[in-house]
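SUBJECT: A protein chain and its fold
Encoding: whole-number codes for local backbone shapes
Chain under study, with its fold:
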Amino acid sequence: MAHFICVTCGTQYAESAQPPRQCAICQDERQYHGIAGQHWTTLEELRRGHWTTIRAKEPGLIGIGVAPKFAIGQRALLVRTPGGNVLWDCIPLLDPATVEFIQALGGLAAIAISHPHYYTTMVQWSLAFDCPIYLHAADRQWVMRSHENIAFWDTETKTIGDGLTLVRCGGHFDGGTVLHWRDGAEGRGALLSGDIIQVVPDRNWVSFMYSYPNLIPLPAAKVERIVAAVEPLPFDRIYGAWWDMIVAQNAKVALHRSAERYLKAIAEDT
């Protein structure tokens, strides 16, 4: 029996004797099956050829990724607060060295994840650090490995730590969530957005999509909802899903400017 992991998206499934016939996450139109078809691995196999990479991003924030790139290729963010550390988003790989490193920093008080594409091995992480996983209930159907440590929330915001607030934006997924870090950006506030608000290569702009790999845009109303959801929050920086995708300053201005550009581009009269 093993907890099989989809090679294309990194999702870990409930224990089984044989791999699932197909990955439900990749069957969805927001994701895809690779050209080579459906393939599976396990955490033990992944550890043989991959390792974690750790980088300081700013005081109180540490990035954790996987090398060589595996599945979607996102990195997680470890937010350090006086009330405990929180892991934002998740990566498929978890090895003893990473557990030891995080335990030396005080362990994890909680895990919170932006959307199902980054659920990956979240249960494995939760068990290693004996902490809850906060997921929005609107995305409950996409949990492929259930566990009692998963805490579903169903409001529009949820405080999960000292200066840490989850905000439901929707968009990419119904429960699409960002994390507001009050003390980020030298106290000016930061949004940790996964790809609910996607930082683009220019890094002075963001964008929004229903499906990134399949290039399916979001309708105007959902983009407007995302902007409205974070409008009450003070923030000057946005951390996207990838290592260097950061709007380093004037992020709220960039968000508004980007939404205006996006809405103009999809308007019927352009």
User: Anything to note?
Assistant: The CA atoms of residues 77 and 88 lie 5 Å apart.
